[in-house]
Structure formats: C-alpha cells, structure tokens
Amino acid sequence: MRSIIFNAPGKLAMREIPMRPIADDEVLVKVEACGLCTWERSVYEGLEPAEFPFIGGHEIAGKVAAVGSKVMPAIAVGQPVAVASLTRCGECYYCQRGLNNQCLQVKSKPVNDQPWGPGGFAEYMYVKRYMVHPLANITNLDTGILAEPLACVIRAIRRADLRAGDTAVVIGAGLMGLLFTLVAKYYGARVIISQPSATRRQKAIDLGADYAFDPRQENFVDFVRGHTGGYGANVVFYTAGGQQAIVDGLKALAKDGHLVVYAPIHPEAALTLDINDFHYREITLTGSLMHDHQSFVTATELISRGVVRLSSFNILRMPFTQIETAIERAKDKNIHRILLYWPDSN
Q1: For a surface tag, which of 60, 73, 180, 186 has the fewest beta carbons within 10 Å of its beta carbon?
Q2: What gap in Å lies between CA 209 and CA 191, rounded to an integer?
Q3: How many CB atoms lie within 10 A of CB 289?
Q4: Helix/strand/coil (H, E, C) string of the chain?
Q5: Mean local confidence (pLDDT), 238-266
Q6: pTM for this one?
C-alpha cells in the first residue's frame, strides 16, 4: 500500500509498505479521505517539534476492509467509519482517571526507524476496534473527516461546562472556530465571534453566530459586555489570535466564567496574569487537548444526524499524489480544509 512519509522538515516521500495479515483483534480500514490539518503542516514546515520519520493523517474517513476473528463488538466489512487514531490503553494512570486523551502509551517517536504518527496518510490502516466509529445515514463519506476535529471541540465545550442560555465567545473563525459555533448553538448558547476577517465573520453568522466583530476595530471587552447586559461571557474559546486575544478573553469573562485555550501559541510565549482577578471573580483558565473516546462517539452521532455537514465548509479535494501542492494551497485562509484522497485506489 502507498503511504506518505515525512522524513525531515520540508522533505516527504511516497513509500510502498507491504500489506500484512490482519491480527485477530484488528480492523483493516481502507482510507477514503483524510483531512490535511494545521498540525501536519506545522510538522512538515518544522514549526511543530517532532521526530522523523513521521506519518501524519488523523482526520480519517474510510470503509472497513477486513475484520479480525476476535473483534468485538462486531462490525461489518464495507461499513463507513471515522477513525480515532489515538492510543487509549485503558490501563495507565491517565486512562484510569478518564483522561484517555493523555494516555501514556501514545508513541511520539519512531521505533526501529519505523514511522510514528496517526497513520491516515496511507491507503490502509490496521487499527483496534475502539478506534473505529461507524457512520450512519451519510451520503458523502468525506464528511467523516470532520469527526476528529468535531470531537476535539465537543471535549473542549464539555471542559468549559457550557450550558443552555450561556454566552460563548469564540476567538477565531477558521474551521475550528466554526465548529465551536455550530456545537455551542446546538447546545443552546449564544455565540459571539471575534475575527478580523470580514469574510470569516460573515461565514460564522451564516452558520448561526449571533454577533461577530473585528477586534482591530472594536474594543474586545466593551463589545462583549455590551452584548451581555454588562456581565461578560460565561465561556471564551480561544482558537487563534495570540497572547493579546487570551488577555482580552480573560477580561471579558463574567464571574465564574471559563476560558479554554484550545490551540497553542507559536512561538511559545508567557502571559502576565492578575492572580487576584482569579480569586475575586472566580474565573477559570484551562486548556483542552485532542479528543477522548466519549467525545468522538458524540461527534460521529452528530455527523450521522446531519447536525454537522461537510457542505457548510469550503473543502478542497486533492489527491495524495499532490500533497506538497496541497500543503501550499492550505495556506489560503478561504479554504477551511484540504481533503486528501487516493486516486485509483483498489
């Protein structure tokens, strides 16, 4: 089978990897589509620290090609699925505490010169049953690439304790900001978008955001408080914007509010915080990393119900054979995601 291997920053190659017999506890998935995420682009460009060789691809949609003899629960060959390509051993300290997104068995470097990584940049994947999430009632399997980013958003929203009737501010209206908008509205919250781009602000409004403003033209805190009766936001989700956006987001919180840092800042930067503000206003600053098993289950359910549709976003389909061109095209901020597929794959 063909696969795309990153050998060093700025260097990749297509490699033929021999197929092997499927293990009794494995599911063989034929990759039909895979999103090109910012993370893989950052690894390729040397912005994200990583060891090589590396095989990316974690926004995966496919079909079950074969099932091991001891796989439970049963799943049929041909079943459309999304793949959560993240190890969850169920036994380590963090898995036992319900933090299976922090599993200690996750590999972060090559072993015996074999590529490490989620593995979706290949024609086939050998995965455990818990990684495979069936998709139902979908006419376009490509929609499955949204399961992974949607699952990350659902977990972040759960960490924020977002409730119906709350006001949520979403900083940034790229793909992740739009997914936050859709899910927050589904859960019954009002949504305010902070986004410099007029095009992206309008897209957020089209998908249900109640208000949107340009933080370069409006005072962040004044705008939020002006649209919340002076109280501020119950929750702020940071997806992009840098240090100042986080500082502004904290100031815009209502008492007992939560700010969730969903995305990292590159290069790393320190913030100066007023600790008394946390004491007197009882606000919370936290992070959210990846997805967990339950949030992935919820994501595939929402996709299967049509709550989140691929047609809501500007998706560009490109073959894996043009991945270097795709990495360049992905810099176009009008494109929400590049969807990679294998041409003439059997």
Answers
A1: 73
A2: 5
A3: 15
A4: CEEEEEEECCEEEEEECCCCCCCCCEEEEEEEEEEECHHHHHHHCCCCCCCCCECCCCEEEEEEEEECCCCCCCCCCCCEEEECCCCCCCCCHHHHCCCHHHCCCCCCCCECCECECCCCCECEEEEEHHHEEECCCCCCHHHHHHHHHHHHHHHHHHHCCCCCCCEEEEECCCHHHHHHHHHHHHCCCEEEEECCCHHHHHHHHHCCCCEEECCCCCCHHHHHHHCCCCCCEEEEEECCCCHHHHHHHHHCEEEEEEEEECCCCCCCCCCCCCHHHHHHHCCEEEECCCCCHHHHHHHHHHHHCCCCCHHHCCEEEEEHHHHHHHHHHCCCCCCCEEEEECCCCC
A5: 96
A6: 0.95
What's the pLDDT at 344?
Answer: 80
Task: Tell me the CA end-to-end span of the chain in Å, nearest whole number.
Answer: 10
pLDDT at 345 over 80: no
346 has a pLDDT exceeding 60:
no
pLDDT digits (tens, 9 = 90+) for 145-200: 999 999 999 999 999 999 999 999 999 999 999 999 999 999 999 999 999 999 99
220 residue type, one letter: F
Q: Structural domains in the chain? A: 2-134+314-341 (3.90.180.10), 158-287 (3.40.50.720)
